[in-house]
Structures are given as C-alpha cells and as structure tokens.
Automatic annotation (TrEMBL):
Alphabetical list of PROSITE patterns matching this protein: ADH_SHORT
Name used for this protein in its record: Diacetyl reductase [(S)-acetoin forming]
Single GO MF annotation: diacetyl reductase ((S)-acetoin forming) (NAD+) activity
Residues of the Ketoreductase domain: 3-183
Main function: Catalyzes the irreversible reduction of 2,3-butanediol to (S)-acetoin in the presence of NADH.
Catalytic activities: (S)-acetoin + NAD(+) = diacetyl + NADH + H(+)
Keywords assigned: NAD, Oxidoreductase
Species of the source: Limosilactobacillus mucosae DSM 13345
Length: 256
C-alpha cells in the first residue's frame, strides 16, 4: 500500500510543490489549506501526472480542524505516515508597527498550527500502531533574525524549538521530527514581503527582494521545487536516522 502524506498550505507556493513531489515519489497525498478551489486544482494536476491526491479544507490555527483533516486522511486512505506542517503567514512588521493582532494571528497559525499538526499526527500514529515522520516549515529567518520580520522571524525560531522538543519526546516510538528552512523562495509570500519592504523604503519590489537575496552564495533565488526536493528526503527512508534537525535549503545564505 502507498504511504500517506498530508501537506498543509498546499494550495500554492512551497506546499503545492511538496505535494506534487511527494505524489511523484509514490505517496498518496492529502492537500490541506483554507480554500477548496485552489486545492482542487492541485489535486487535478497531481492526478493528471498519474499521482494520487485528495483535498481537505482546514484552518491550521484551529486544533479541531487539524485533527479532523488527519482523521479524514486516515479514513480516506486507511493509513497515515508523513505530516508536513508547511502552512504559514508572514506579514512585514518593522518593530514599531507590531500590533497585538499581528502577534495573535501569526503565532496562532505558524506556532499553533505546527503544534496542532504534531499533536494530530502523533495521535494518528499511536492509533495506527506505527511511527511516522513529522516535518515542519521554519525559515532562514528562523535561524538568523531578519529585519522587518520581528513577528514572523520569532515564530519561525519557535518552530525550530518545537521540532527539537518533540523530536526528543517522540523518538522512543520511532517517530522523527525535522524541519526545513527555506531561503528566499519565489512564491506569493516572498513577493509580498519584497513589495512591502520596498514600499516602506520608498523603493522598488526588486530593491526589497535584494535586501533578502544579496547574501545567497549560489546567486539565485530558490524555486519552490528546491525546497520540495529537501522535504522529499525528510519524508523518505534515507532520513530514517535523522531527527530534531533543521535542513537549511537556502542556497548558502549562512554557514554555521
Ligand atoms: N517563500 C519563502 O521565501 C519562504 C517561505 N517559508 C515558509 O514556507 C511555508 C510556505 O510558504 P510559501 O509557499 O512561500 O507561502 P504562500 O503564502 O505562498 O503559501 C502559503 C499557503 O499556506 C496557506 N495558509 C495560510 N494560512 C493558513 C491557515 N491558517 N490554515 C491553512 N492554510 C493556511 C495559504 O492559503 C497558502 O496555500 C511557510 O511556512 C513559510 O513561512 C520559509 C522560508 C522562506
Ligand atoms: C519569508 C521568509 O521566510 C524569509 C524572508 O526568509
């Protein structure tokens, strides 16, 4: 039987590329986001390429909706093996502009959504009686503080913390928990940040993008597929002895 993976935030950008790649690798893929129309297009694309996929709507900030999505995955495919907590939001928030609403929204989606995803996946693995793999989206901005992104960047630092803690908690059962840290990826999220940072400085979107992209050693922006390649490794058997780690997929923005 094919292994089953669920990807949140799969309606566009990195999540869509991950869903497409995992389907190509033979997973039955459950694609999750808030809007069914975008998800249905992703499902149609995967099926047209010979893959298997199924769409479920959920707001990852809502614990019961995340649990319901995982339950639907198990019900539909009869198993559950990989959880990719990819959904996230990234408003541009120079420190003096941060509001309680920004904090509440970003933390409930980025941090809460990751915690609910880990919980729901763990509950399913326990019920099914086998371990699985949990993979969380952090960011290069969750490894090094990024100007203008106080709320987002700190939420992505938290996701590395959640990854390390839960990797230790779930290791005994054989479940691995890892994270991927993309760099500057050509998606609607990054285009919006570049636009806002450029606008705040009275400059262009390209200028805004360069404030983030200037340090990429490989000298090109990332495609969503670059990130999907790394997630495919974390979802597959070649990463079985890796847990609690963050795989930096940033073209060499920083070295440790
Ligand atoms: N684009 C980039 O340069 C980078 C992105 N990332 C991270 O990668 C992940 C994906 O980012 P992108 O594809 O660029 O973003 P995007 O904005 O293009 O796509 C995000 C997806 O998440 C969904 N989503 C947002 N809030 C949701 C919620 N409450 N419940 C369910 N779905 C929700 C959106 O509908 C969308 O489908 C995010 O966690 C982001 O923080 C990390 C580093 C760099
Ligand atoms: C959006 C993001 O994660 C950046 C700029 O690293």
């Amino acid at each position: 039987m094919a292994k089953v993976a669920l990807v949140t935030g799969a309606g566009q950008g990195i999540g869509k590329a991950i869903a497409e790649r995992l389907a190509k690798d033979g997973f039955s893929v459950v694609v999750v986001a808030r809007h069914m129309d975008a998800l249905q297009k992703v499902v149609e694309g995967i099926k047209a390429n010979g893959g298997e996929a199924f769409a479920v709507t959920a707001d990852v900030a809502k614990r019961d909706e995340v649990f319901a999505a995982v339950d639907q995955a198990v019900e539909h495919y009869g198993d559950f093996n990989v959880m990719v907590n990819n959904a996230g939001v990234a408003p541009t928030t120079p420190i003096d502009t941060v509001t309680p609403e920004d904090l509440q929204k970003v933390y409930s989606i980025n941090v809460g959504g990751t915690i609910w995803g880990v919980q729901a996946a763990h509950a399913a693995f326990k019920k099914l009686g086998h371990p699985g793999k949990i993979i969380n989206a952090t960011s290069q901005a969750g490894v090094v503080g990024n100007p203008n992104l106080t709320v987002y960047s700190s939420s992505k630092f938290a996701i590395r913390g959640i990854t390390q803690v839960t990797a230790r908690e779930l290791a005994e059962e054989g479940t691995t928990v890892n994270a991927y840290a993309p760099g500057i990826v050509k998606t609607p999220m990054m285009m919006d940040i570049a636009h806002q940072v450029g606008k705040n400085a009275g400059k262009s979107d390209e200028w805004g993008m360069q404030t983030f992209a200037k340090d990429i050693a490989l000298k090109r922006l990332s495609e969503p597929e670059d990130v999907a390649n790394a997630v495919a490794f974390l979802a597959g058997p070649d990463s079985d002895y890796i847990t609690g780690q963050t795989l930096e997929v940033d073209g060499g923005m920083q070295f440790h």
